[in-house]
Amino acid sequence: MSILLVAYSARFLAESAISGGFQVRAADYFGDRDLRERVESASVLRDLGEAFSPAALLAVAERLGGEALVYAGGLENHPSLVARLSRRRELLGNPPEVLVAVRDWKRLGEVLRKADLPAPEMRFPGEEGRAESGGRWLVKPRRGAAGAGIHFWRGEVLPRGNVLQEFLPGLSGSFTFLADGRRAVPVGCTEQLIGRKEFGGKPFAWCGNVAPLAFAPGGEAARTETLLRRMAEVLAEMFSLRGLNTVDFVLAGKRGERLPVPVEIYPRPSASLEVLAMLL
Predict the structure, then answer these.
(1) Which of 198-222 are b and which e, b meaning 16 or more Cβ less than 10 Å from the residue's Cβ?
(2) What are phi and psi of 222, to 5 degrees?
(3) In what side-by-side order are the strands of the sheet with 68-71?
(4) Which one-letter DSSP state was computed for residue 119?
(5) Is the whole model's pTM more than 0.70, yes or no?
(6) Tens digits of residue pLDDT in 223-245
(7) Which residues contact 127 (CB under 8 A, 6 or more apart)?
């Protein structure tokens, strides 16, 4: 089977697919030299000389063949692009309707709370008055990735396309799992490096992943793993998730102990796989 990989950066996915014996074509923004040397590829920056956009990525992707489609970073925010790319290909991952459903924070919060799982407090446009007293809040784009566009709320009216999420100080992590539409199997857990100035990162920007995660002494590791496994099972069943998915979370004080509170759901392969691949 030949696979078309489409992502903001497709290098690692291409290397992984090649090692699995697949024929690979790749469309992304950067067009890294080491990607070009290994597979047939097309790049928004290299071939079009344009800034990143869904339309530009579609334009370079349509230059390539491929019997199946795998997409990654950023495309979960563009379900119509996924629909277009998968029109004549087998989709290996979540279809557009699942992307829309699982990234709806109102529905997601209801699902998590009904299952008695940790969930962050959220406020939506028109609900700013319910966030004025107590705690700190983050303004987050509804369609975001890698921490882009996140900042502390200062009491302003929410811009269109944004939500408020409670700020949770604590250790940031990523939990990756495989799903088949009903069941979930854990792949691994890593620590996220967020907003690190030594890496040139802006506040809340993703700067990389490391393993293992630094749990507190005692039973925190086992308790966190149990909750994350349960979370993956609930999400897989309720949203019919398929393929690789990741829950970004913060180990934060909830119910008198540190619990993994999800702050983002990525229904596609994530960058933490590069670290996990070295541990498997």
Answers:
(1) eeebeebbbbbbebebebeeeebee
(2) -65, -40
(3) 40-43, 23-28, 2-6, 68-71, 90-91
(4) -
(5) yes
(6) 999 999 999 999 999 999 999 99
(7) 164
